[in-house]
Amino acid sequence: MLRFLLFKALRAIVTIILVVTFAFVVLRMSGDPAVIILGPDAPPDAIAAFRHAWGLDQPLWDQYLRYFAAIARGDLGVSMRDGQSAIKLVMERIPATLELTVPALILELLIGISAGVYAALHRESLVDRSVMTGAVIGFTMPSFVLGLVLVLIFSVTLDWLPSGGQDSWVHAILPVATMTVGGVGILARVSRSAMIEILGQPYIRTASAKGMPWQKVVWRHALPNAAIPIVTIAGFMVGSLIAGAVVVESLFSWPGVGRLLVVAVSNRDLAVVQCILLMVAATMVLSNFAVDILYGYLDPRLRNSEAKA
Fold first, then answer.
1. Looking at per-residue confidence, does 5 or 151 come out higher?
2. Which helix (H) or strand (E) holds 233?
């Protein structure tokens, strides 16, 4: 088990390094922060002084090494726009993002898995076809389109819900709904497919033939064995929640990390963008790491094969 955990931890560290490196290079190739922040009409001396003050006039490899050395010390940089600590700016926005992502994740898991399992237990019925049709529509519709449709219906036409802001819990209903629909559709399809495959296995038929109540067969034998693909998708969704909040927070004027990322990218605020991307990468890697560990407990064969590899 120790070898298995070490292998996964090493892979997680390598993944984070690659993501940070990619973001570092792309950000510096996408435009000069000095020109964007000071403006194209700024004097050349001012632009040169700005670039020197922030180390942008140094070779790229030197900036890269200094950046990683700073991360090792726990220093994630300072915003070029207002001089505040990048990690402080990001941490101030995290509670607002969690107000959307946590309820969205809970609803995705509860509704998506329940709908998928129920559809599998009533295969080829009207309920099954209705659930799968809704699932396909849900995960194929872009979140910005769904958000605009919800605003048009519930804010503009019916005037039931606010279209943006963060004044009360009512303002979170439309953003949470927008983030939830796609995840519910994905989980419903995966849960249904996994359950149908397990329900067709010989040991399920044997347990049923021995007189075990069908509800007990489902809970004791079918669901635990269908858990691996469901856990895989759930882990990916946990890691991608912050990344998925970018569109939703911008659409509904929600002051979270996603909206901060959009503003920071447009301003080429390198430290803030790199801090957010590092946080997103760490969240996704850690969630996948947790899923890998859970794999080892759900199916020891996977743990042994990964360790040997």
1. 151
2. helix 227-251
